[in-house]
Give the backbone structure.
Amino acid sequence: DTEVTQTPKHLVMGMTNKKSLKCEQHMGHRAMYWYKQKAKKPPELMFVYSYEKLSINESVPSRFSPECPNSSLLNLHLHALQPEDSALYLCASSQEPGGFSYEQYFGPGTRLTVT
Amino acid sequence: GESVGLHLPTLSVQEGDNSIINCAYSNSASDYFIWYKQESGKGPQFIIDIRSNMDKRQGQRVTVLLNKTVKHLSLQIAATQPGDSAVYFCAEKAGFQKLVFGTGTRLLVSP
């Protein structure tokens, strides 16, 4: 299984809502990532988890809260978002953190619209 | 690379042609590079990678060339097919576990 799955595919939420994005991989990867991608732009790193611990936070606003319950799952909790947070949110995973391969496997993303 | 502007550079080719997509990177100390393909509505998909101790690496129908002197990376796609139409991103390793993506190039392949 070389797949990263993300749910939901699409999400529309109001600025006062609380929602969560979910990501799952069963490749035994021990590093997982959240990226944000705006239209016609490259993915921008938000968070990195290594061995279920947060290792990188790219100065992301606190209205985004990541969680890694176990080595296969990654969540992104959303609260009080702004319309400019509307974007494609991508999850990725890679093998051993700091290992030989830096290849990241991406999921299909969640298209988020904040109204 | 830094993302700039609102418009993706676009390369238009005919089916069967060879395509060359270019990328400039900023950090002369970068030692690992990756090319990703992103089709509409999908996440980026790995194409090929190269380490800085190499100048060239070949895959199936794809070749990556690395010129460290001018900090330039290129992706060559042989016999381009309509299924190759996508946005292509180069990415460089920018610290432990971190990849930084370039601006991207849209490849349009017409039959």
